[in-house]
Amino acid sequence: MFATRNSLKLAARSFSTATPQQSKVAVLGAAGGIGQPLSLLLKANTRVTKLSLYDIHNTPGVAADVGHINTLSEVTGYSAKDQDGLKKALEGAELVVIPAGVPRKPGMTRDDLFNTNAGIVRDLAQACAEVCPKAKLLIISNPVNSTVPIASEVFKKAGVYDAK
């Protein structure tokens, strides 16, 4: 009796008519050393239905490579060379991951790293504030403890900051 009841519950869930959860994720800095494997992992995630990749160069090639992974999600690549490439990459995004920036090189101080990556994160955050202000941002550009507050201030300045 219990086996029948449990199997009926399982069957009811299996034939659900609810709309599957769809989500668009944008990776800004997708052609870099972190962005490429991150994009690969996101493509394999069943919750990601659209994966939008953006970088200053080589993004269409990365998108083509990642697109060969046999999942149902759709992959598109945009470059800085494309007209409105960043805007197109961000349109409709619910989650934006920012691994963009330069890695710390030998002899480079933390201040040098900050000066370079702060400008990159600021510009990308401004685009997010304009195009997808409700999207959740995941910033992994170093130094993280300094780049995250920059994005926060950009969103506050644009009037779209949500403390959640």
Describe this structure in words.
The protein is α/β, with parallel strands linked by helices. 46% of the residues lie in helices and 15% in strands. The chain has six helices and five strands. It has helices spanning 2-14, 35-44, 59-67, 85-90, 110-131, 144-158; strands spanning 24-28, 50-55, 74-79, 95-98, 136-139. It has a five-stranded parallel beta sheet, with helices on both faces. Strand 1, helix 2 and strand 2 form a beta-alpha-beta unit. The mean pLDDT is 88.
- Low-pLDDT regions: none
Rg calculated over all Cα atoms:
19 Å
Q: Output the strand order for the largest sheet.
A: 3-2-1-4-5
Give the biggest beta sheet: 5 strands, parallel
Overall body shape: globular
Mean pLDDT: 88
Oligomeric form of this entry?
A: single chain
State the helix count.
Answer: 6
The tally of beta strands, per DSSP, is 5
Helix/strand-derived category reads alpha/beta
The secondary-structure element order is HEHEHEHEHEH
Strand content: 15-25%
For the terminal residues, how far apart are their CA atoms? Answer: 46 Å
Helix content: 40-55%
Short note summarizing the structure:
The protein is of the alpha/beta class.
Strands, helices and their partners?
Elements lengths: L1 H13 L9 E5 L6 H10 L5 E6 L3 H9 L6 E6 L5 H6 L4 E4 L11 H22 L4 E4 L4 H15 L6
Parallel strand pairs: 1-2, 1-4, 2-3, 4-5
Helix pairs in contact: 5-6
Considering the chains and any ligands shown, give keywords for the structure.
single chain; 164 residues; alpha/beta; 6 helices; globular
